[in-house]
Amino acid sequence: METLWFWLVSVMVAIYVVMDGFDFGAGILHLVVAKTNEERRQVLGAIGPLWDGNEVWLLAGGGSLFLAFPKVLASGFSGFYLAMWLVVWSLMLRGISIEFRSHVLDGLWRHFWDTTFAVSSVLLPVLLGAALGNVLRGVPLDATGYFSMPLWTDFQLGPQPGILDWYTVLTGVFALVTVAAHGALFLAWKTEGPVHVRAKHLAPRLWLLVLVVWVAASAATTRVNPAILHNLPGAPLAWVAILLYLAGLGLVFAGLVRERYLLAFLGSGAFILGLLAASAACVFPVMLRSTLNPAFDLTALNSSVGGHGLRTGLVWWLLGFPLALGYVAFLFRFHRGKVAAAEEGEGY
Amino acid sequence: MGDPLFWHRLQFGFTATYHYLFPQLTMGLALVIVIFKALGLRTSEARYSDAARFWIRIFGINFAVGVVTGIPLEFQFGTNWARFSQLSGGIIGQTLGMEGMFAFFLESSFLGLLIWGEKKLSPKGHFGAAVALWLGSWLSGYFIIATNAFMQHPTGFAVAVDGTLQLTSFWAFLLNPWALGQYAHNMIAAVVTGSFVVAAVGAYWTLKGIHPVQAGLNLRTGTILGLIFSVLVAFPTGDIQGKLVAKHQPITLAAMEGRFESGPRAALTLIGQPDVTMHKIENPIKVPAVLSFIAFGTFSSNVRGLLEFPQDQWPQNIELLYYGFHIMAGLGTLMIGLMALAVFLLWRGKLATNRPLLWVVMLAVPFPYIATTAGWVVAEFGRQPWLIYGVLRTAQGSSPLVHAGHTAFTTLGFAGIFVVLSMLWLFLIGRELAHGPESQAH
Fold it and tell me: In this structure, is the dihedral angle defined by the CA atoms of residues B395, B397, B400 and B406, taken in order, positive or negative?
């Protein structure tokens, strides 16, 4: 049951990254691919009806983590205190930027929100990628099960690292270029005209960049956490996940070559999903690794709540999850086709 | 000020209070919008759809601020109250997870369709989006109230050997009698806020002599709903809530009333200033035996005073708790009186010409906000010194390694963010009010 919940939480987080990832990507590229007000309304119209639902995967995933592994949530959230609040503030800024921009027809007003939208969309994947880097590298958990970390120290690895060191900055950059590339495919798929053309031209370059940073980040990860390579042979799910992300990567490039951007976008979703699943399979059952002593690791087995709570949660989770997927399917179907800029007063 | 607990409490109280200014309106307006859309569907009269369209725009702005100010609350469980989360996550994680799964997905999927979808959807489809938002926001309210009810009156759990709280009965937890009573009280209060806002906008347009059709419709709808729901918020739901406090938190009841000595035929203090060190109320105006009746249903019941309980179990902020309760109950009574008078004049056909009363209806907008905030002050200060009543003290629930410098930084950060949000909100709402309702040809 603990193993199942480890995977339920991982799946929710992975879906969050894939779904909100293309919102971040659209935001990162917003100022680059869309120059005029009309073009920017196209970008916002593409993600406007979706971003809030995408963000709910984070809250629902956090709720699942809370109910199944409260120790991990308590230790991680309080340990990353300042970084957590930077994430929350960026999420707030991003949401307000999307929702408030269209209310006033004024160049300065819109320029302001375009910029805050882009800035928050850059900060979020860097912070979340760095968070993933911290989970892979480990944090100074002691026997109490808690830790406290400054935002940065000397950017070196060691038993008392900062939240940002060279490795987590690297994973943050990897997350940034990956969601930017993911978002470029989404925009190439959903838009037409100049936005489509610019996204189309950027996408292959961004994906080549993804490959370069990915190789560097993977090499660094095996150095920072050698246990991942040791676990790999005995983790069949990791092999499935590796196949998934390789297939996803293949689809991305096949879609780019044939200019079939839905295909490429689905491929990049599979790439992100597979990459996160492979990481989860390789660290399982560890959820928060201790840099001080492996005995202090918080794992799915030593941090979970009792069986009754997990079984109860599973019942409603099995009801709610298909419902959530149903909403996603409904939204994508309702907003199918290329996005045109909304008329004034009629949309994002 | 160097005490981290002080900052944790200040930050949560501050961010939760600010956040709830927005959902109380959107939850109330969601029902008003459903009513207008339903009337529009039934009668095919454009004025109902026009009214709904105006309120949907107000709803959208408030909903956006509600969403972004709500996210920090979810995060604070882990960041600031780690020991509380670690001990009770297996229980309150259930409701918080369900809120995401069942309420937030529903709301977020249909929000865009409600706000921007009127032209894309059929009239029935748009009505459906309004119903989805109403259901979603009221469902979300239930999960939050159920979480709070567990902290007020924990049910359906057992303490494990390692000290953590484990779920033993999902239904006892989810259908906690405290949750049912508090939910009814709180949601009706949200409709009161919505009605007062609708009535005030109607009164404003009537006084200005603009948008006559919409002015009359909003004034009528707002005052009628305002009367019904401000009565319901006091009786039966406020009464039920009071009896729950009397039964499960007798110390809180004593503190709310500033009652130090025990005894039968307890008097209700209408006004007066509590002097906690001298154990008395100064300058009191009291109604004999009414407190006994409110708390237990008979005039002769014994209502215990604070001195009967050990002082380490008293709430720490008795003054604030006392004033919170009296402001809530006093404003609640005034609001019933105001709406009763307005509806009486409406019935006699004289409300639209009674300019003094229209001024009062317009300026009464802050009342439901203040009363609701004061009600939550009573609930949350009344729960002290406990985080989970009788189980975990507030002082034992905070994050062990987060120091005052961290939390002071984030609290001040929120102060800044909220100033900016408030200015944006005022600006955008002001624009909508100035712009007024618009009729759309179908």
Answer: negative
- The answer to whether B166 contacts A308, with C-beta atoms less than 8 Å apart, is yes
Are B328 and B378 contacting, i.e. CB atoms less than 8 angstroms apart? yes
Using a CB cutoff of 8 Å and minimum separation of 24, what contacts does B287-290 make? B289/B265
Coil, strand, or helix at residue B267?
coil
Q: How many CB atoms lie within 10 A of CB B135?
A: 17
Specify the pTM.
0.94
Q: Are A26 and A186 in contact (CB under 8 A)?
A: yes
Cα dihedral across residues B210, B213, B217, B220: positive or negative: positive
Cβ burial of B317 (10 Å; 0-12, 13-18, 19+) is middle
Buried b (16+ CB within 10 A) or exposed e, A260-271: bbebbbbbbbbb
The DSSP call for residue A341 is P
- Say whether B89 and A305 touch across the interface (CB within 8 A): yes
Token pair of B161, please? 């050997």
Residue holding tokens 């150095």?
A223
pLDDT for A142 equals 93
Q: Which residues of A touch B431 (CB under 8 A)?
A: 103-104
Q: Which residues lie below 8 Å from residue A306, measured CB to CB, with a gap of 6+?
A: B90, B160, B166, B167
* Minimal CA separation from A6 to chain B, in Å: 14
Helical segments of A155-235, H only: 166-190, 194-224, 227-231
Outline where B80-122 has alpha helix (H).
Answer: 82-98, 105-116
A316 CB neighbours in chain B (<8 A) are 94, 97-98, 101-102
Distance CA B220, CA B72 (A): 38
Q: Are B133 and B110 in contact (CB under 8 A)?
A: yes
Does residue A154 surpass a pLDDT of 90?
A: no
Q: Are B36 and B127 in contact (CB under 8 A)?
A: no
**Residues from chain B contacting residue A148 (CB–CB below 8 Å):** 401-402
A249-281 pLDDT per residue, tens:
999 999 999 999 999 999 999 999 999 999 999
Q: To 10 degrees, the CA torsion angle through A230, A235, A241, A245?
A: 20
CA distance B141 to B102: 12
Mean per-residue pLDDT, A95-99: 95
Chain centre to alpha carbon of residue B83:
27
Report, as ranges of residue numbers, the positions in chain B whose pLDDT lies below 50. Answer: 441-442
3-class SS shares of chain A: helix, strand, coil, % to 5? 75, 5, 20
pLDDT for A190:
95
Query: How many pairs of residues across A and B have Cβ atoms under 8 Å apart?
Result: 208
State the virtual CA torsion across A185, A336, A334, A122 in degrees, nearest 10.
20
**DSSP string over B347-416:** HTT-GGG-HHHHHHHHHTTHHHHHHHHHHHHHHHHHHTTEEETTTEEGGGSS-SS--HHHHHHHHHHHHH
Bridge partners, residue B269, by sequence: B286
Contact of A313 with chain B, judged by CB distance below 8 Å, is answered with yes
Candidates B209, B240, B207, B228; CA nearest to B32 is B228
Residues of A in contact with B100 (CB under 8 A): 56, 59-63
For helices B237-248 and B177-208, what crossing angle results, to 10°? 140
Q: What is the mean pLDDT of chain A?
A: 94
Q: Are B194 and B31 in contact (CB under 8 A)?
A: yes
